[in-house]
Amino acid sequence: MKHHANDDTLKRITEAMVALETDAVPKLAEDALGSGYPAQSIVDALTVGINTVGEKFEAMEYFLPDLIMAAGAMDESMDILRAALTRDDVAVGKKGTIVLAQVQGDIHDIGRNIMTAMLRAAGFTVHDLGHDLKPDLIIDKALDCNADVIGLSSLLTTSLPFAEQVPRLLVARDLRARFQVAMGGGAVTPEYAVRAGADGYAENAGAGVKLMHQLVAGR
Amino acid sequence: MASVFEVLRRAENGLYIKEHDFDMKLFKTTSGLVKEHGIKFNKDLAVAKDDKMADSIFEAGLRLATEMGMFSTDTSRIIEFSEQELLQALRLAPQEMVLGLGKDARVLRARRFGDGYPMIVCGGCPGTPLPEELFLPVMMSYAREPLIDLLIPGSLTKIEGMDVTTGGPLEIRACRQEMIWVREALERSGRPGLHIYAAGESSATELGTLAICNDRYMRTSDSHMIPVLSELKTDNKRLSRVMTGYEYPAFTTSLINPIIGGFGGGPEGAAIVLAAAIMLATAAYRVDMHCLHPIHNKYISVSTKQAMWVDSVVGRAFARNAPVALLADAWTTAGAGTQEILYETAALAIAQETSALHTDSLGATNGVYPNCSGLEARFFGEVAHAVFEQKLGPEEANDLVLRLFALYEHGFEDPNLGMPFPEVYDVKLIEPKAAWLDTYERTKDAIAQMGVDFR
User: Fold this and answer.
1) Cα-based distances in Å from B4 to A116, A179, B73, B128, B207
2) pTM (2 decimals)?
3) Minimum CA–CA partner of A111 in chain B
4) pLDDT tens digits, B23-48
5) Deepest in the core among A135, A158, B286, B345, taking most CB within 10 A?
6) Is residue A1 part of a domain?
7) CB contact A106 to B (< 8 Å)
8) How many CB atoms lie within 10 A of CB A183?
9) Looking at this predicted complex, what is its ipTM?
């Protein structure tokens, strides 16, 4: 059985992802698995495709809905492949678990939507908790999800005090070592993130993906 | 035209839709309209010149507004408007407003090409967090600039050393203090009647607006802001601001932030979404004017080519089809004290003046750092007035903007954030320091060499 990157079946999976044939992608993944392709080779083909989608989004050739649909196709494909992946595989979804939240008082969603889609595309398990969330509730959800990283976003200066409550409450609840904390969003500066006790800051979604890799690897 | 109560009724009883489905429908509808009208962003254009395309964007915006309506995130209902209601709302929108009082009052017009009136220049530092001790001097630095016609406050983020939090009690105090100090800045600058635009910047909720509905703070000759949530959405907090304005007759302005690369798609789709949002805000909020602020999906700043083009083509679309007062934000990536901020300022001033827009102030460092001052606002006014007097056409304007763009585009990846106010201004005299003044003069000379005639 051939399963190198130039293989036509795997190439077709990559191409379908890049072409945003999002209904076809999970079916192609399932067919390839049924034909005896190792699950990891299929994951690799999907990853190449979705990375290209991410690059096209950054270059404004693709837009947020495209990214969301591609990330959805990736998730669906992974559900099909997960059982077949052996424990030693470096599989999508094993890169780390992230919870993302817009802090209390802030109802902006779109930046976090972009971050969610790009992280899912990069292979993280992402729980998007939504907006206007109290600091303590964010921590409760992070525990429920067994998250590695808590990602906090704020576009409002007046919501930043709620962002810094999260690291402080983690300390108060004796959970600070349990989670990495990342911050981003229009109102956040790198200096603020340091002052607030975060472990990292990202100025945009692309930088956010790199940051999450670093934070998860540093655990 | 639907009354405020009818809008609230529609928000409660309109068609139910999941928010995700609304977003995806918006993408599909907008993409279809872009294709149907053959609208194409040209990367060599920051200033729109194609009347046919501008008309198409107006038509597509009207279709989008009619097909989508405005989504209430609190009720998951669509506030629908018929095409007739939207057009009627635009027809009834004010064409001229006297903003401010006495000799300091200015007339804000719904601009048309060739109407013989220059833009109204709003100065200030919207969204910028300012410490209490700097708030008054920073505001005075703007108030003292004679080319500034309206003043927008910065944001107070601490009161008595405590953080102002969204929806918290200090929002009330912060907004009142903000207005007291802005008024003092105007009085000390001999311009007590100047219009305060978007009063209550220190509050992200309706609390601040409600707190300042009093002649001591926000006069009825001032204005407050009612944002449209991206894209084409509202909620009870925004509608509460509408209700606040219902009985307190200060002026109102929308704030519209279409995301370029977001649910509307690229610049073409974002322009259609922006046009639709202007129509919906006119009908649903009954605002007197609109603040336009397209956001680039990566760089945020409105000084990208895409964002300038979105503002420009929408300005052209409304000036030709249904003039309403449009004020475009002029937020820059760079900060005070740098040559880059002046290049960005000049590009934005040229693009906005030649696109029948007014300006809604210059937010240095995209409103993140207090690295701002009155001098860059002065420069904005000087450039805008110069190109108005020169009767610069869109082609010449575009050439100039592209040449300026080449001088600051490196800053999107590696911004020159400049310096905080006390490092560029003498805080006691409220005057620019020598180094900042020198940078300003050198840059002004360079831009004059490029063809801007500062007489």
Assistant:
1) 36, 47, 18, 32, 20
2) 0.93
3) B297
4) 999 999 999 999 999 999 999 999 99
5) B345
6) no
7) yes
8) 31
9) 0.88
